[in-house]
Specification:
It comes from uncultured bacterium 12-5D. The protein is an all-alpha fold. Helix content is about 70%, strand content about 0%. It contains 16 helices and no strands.
């Protein structure tokens, strides 16, 4: 996201486009930690973005998220191939060379943010690609892959929910101009890295119905929830996972959610309640979060059986 914003700042956006883009950026940022706070982080200035990248005191910063990932990876280093570990080590060393400063000039903020965002965007996919080609295709690696897809689905689902105001009312054109809606939806697609996919699939300007259908229902778009569900299903149906405790309820939950998405008509939803998308989208997000819990439970059940050698109930959740 920071990399996209930095690129957009260098483009010749007029004042109207900037005013419409920035609310979309901010809606996708997590709220600041704190009891009952509704204040969100900001990326309006170079210093805001620099802080979101490198401030270790911020629980939502990129460096904090990477530190948690490095800690988790270290705890299972023996399970990782040397080649994949080298990529993580390079990423850690890259961020380790940059210490957070409280009051740097804007030029330094922009330079460091751009450098680190480019490194993260390059090395994180590289880790998964190298691991895919060098690690055993065992249950542990499959769980890592499943985690990648379910987290991607959650990111997409949460992003759609976060910008519901840009989608609500856009179907009628009464609450905002069509041009403004198009700009905001285009900004949203660009931040998710799906604008090119949208243009290839629909070949029309960004519109609420098509955006919702692509993010939730299109099985070919890597960022879509349906695509991620299909990938999780395929991994759980691998021979070594198929008979594992908890796999059956996970597959049942995925099947149920897929059927729900296939039957859902966003066109009818927009016509029936164009200004009330909040509840339906929140319900879909909650179902995605629930699926995350079910799959995690499935894996933990399987690991418990491996560790103890004793049978275990197939999942703690009643999924029908």
């Amino acid at each position: 996201m920071l990399q996209v914003v930095q690129s957009l700042e260098a483009e010749e956006l007029n004042s109207e486009e900037r005013k419409l883009y920035r609310p979309i950026w901010i809606r996708l940022l997590p709220r600041l930690e704190g009891k009952n706070t509704k204040t969100r982080r900001n990326i309006r200035t170079q210093r805001d973005r620099y802080s979101l990248m490198l401030n270790r005191q911020d629980e939502g910063s990129v460096i904090t998220a990477l530190q948690r990932a490095f800690s988790n990876a270290t705890s299972i280093q023996d399970c990782l191939s040397p080649e994949s570990w080298n990529v993580l080590d390079e990423l850690q060393r890259t961020f380790g060379r940059h210490r957070y400063k409280s009051d740097p000039p804007d030029t330094e903020c922009a330079r460091r943010t751009r450098l680190l965002s480019e490194s993260a965007m390059s090395l994180i996919p590289q880790f998964f690609a190298v691991a895919q080609n060098t690690m055993l295709s065992d249950d542990g690696w499959r769980f890592c892959q499943i985690g990648l897809y379910i987290e991607r689905a959650l990111t997409s689902a949460n992003a759609v929910q976060s910008i519901f105001e840009a989608l609500s009312g856009a179907g009628t054109g009464e609450s905002r101009g069509e041009h403004a809606t198009e700009i905001q939806l285009s900004a949203f697609l660009r931040l998710l890295g799906t604008r090119d996919a949208y243009r290839r699939v629909y070949q029309v300007r960004a519109q609420p119905q098509q955006v919702l259908e692509m993010i939730w229902q299109n099985p070919e778009v890597p960022r879509s929830v349906m695509h991620c569900l299909n990938k999780c299903r395929d991994l759980l149906e691998e021979p070594t996972m198929r008979n594992a405790p908890g796999t059956k309820p996970s597959l049942a939950a995925i099947k149920s959610f897929r059927l729900e998405l296939e039957k859902l008509s966003f066109r009818k939803l927009l016509v029936a309640q164009p200004d009330a998308l909040t509840d339906p989208l929140q319900e879909l997000l909650s179902t995605t979060e629930y699926l995350h819990f079910v799959i995690s439970d499935s894996f933990l059940s399987h690991q418990a059986e491996i560790s103890t050698g004793s049978p275990r109930a197939a999942g703690r959740l009643n999924v029908s």
